[in-house]
Amino acid sequence: MLITRRAALGALAASPMLAAPAVRAQAPVQITFNYPVAVGGPITKVIDGYCADFERANPGIRIRPVYTGTYQDSITKALTAARGGDAPQMACLLSTDMFTLVDEDVVVSWDELPGAEKGWMDSFYPGFMENSRTGGKTWGIPFQRSTIVMYYNKDAFKAAGLDPETPPKDWAEQVAFAQKLTRRQGDSVTQWGIQIPSSGFPYWLFQALTTQNDVRLMNEAGNRTFFADPKVAEALQYWTDLSARHKVQPSGIVEWGTTPRDFFERKVAMMWTTTGNLTNVKANAPFPFGVAMLPAGRRRGSPTGGGNLYVFKSASPAQREAAVKFARFLTEPERAAQWGIDTGYVATSPAAWETPKMKEYVAGFPAAAVARDQLPHAVAELSTHENQRVTKALNDGLQAVLTGRAQPVPAMAQAQAEADRILRAYRG
Fold first, then answer.
1. What is the pTM of this model?
2. Are residues 207 and 59 in the same domain?
3. Do 109 and 212 fall within a single domain?
4. 1 partner at 20 to 30 Å CA-CA among 18, 399, 412, 414?
């Protein structure tokens, strides 16, 4: 009888129905993911879709995307939240925010995160990793990345007697082409030859010119700048001469945000802007257009640009592991290829360009590969300690010259003096 009773008790204890109350369903790991949206609604739909797809594949993880406005708004919000003890666990922020995030001690390096193997981190284009690593550690994973490219109106080229399949290859041709493309009626200009925007991200567009003039604006450690180098002033003189001397670009400040619209409305025949505008141009240009690498000065060149994925120290061990899974999900070759097709941003790994869908897309739309092909000529975007202050010093000098209030050499010397004052404390 005793044996029977013990057997019965054992059976009851083993019953899953009776054992269930003692088992608690594990709560899903929650990740707040801050994402910069300054380019319109379609991006949010894509990111929402990725989050939903990831959750279906990983039922124990929940991703909450929070759209935080411009890149500048996004870094400000992230740092404010971190200081207040309410940081996101993950964010897409500018690659150039790396030093700021490290100095503020709010992010963790990917090298320390479970599942972030070296082979994965080394799978991205080296040009994008220049703005992702410092001090022997990887702080950002390339995601929403870009370079600057030239877009041009093929109909305007034909009307000006230019070969629509042959964009300008160097600075001299760029001026010569722009002169032929500029159309005037009396004292008014109905079509400018070229526009290189000087609002929004003037330092970034300018860095393309300095790279082409074979000079770097900062060192790898982010504690020195070279704004006073004579080649920097030469590049700025070329930029200001487009309007002041050659009269092929509008004078004063050329707006970043309206330049694509000016291109669509045939107010400008050639423009420099991000490859992130490629899908926008493809959808809205009412004429055949070309996409080309930027013309060469002493060499070809463009800075890279755009956003990296960062993990904040606020993340728990479980959240850090989930963040790595999400980052690896976002950067899988097939998904990275589709992201590039949907947005115009550069798929960030060579493997993404080898996928069947990307090969098919490039075969039908060769312009999509221009930014990728320019990567061997690309350099890291301007990034230093106290980056926003240093960048402001350069932007102020650029805009003073472009509006005729200063000359290139003294303006760049003044910008360098301000940068030196800011960065001196970081030189050890």
1. 0.89
2. no
3. no
4. 18
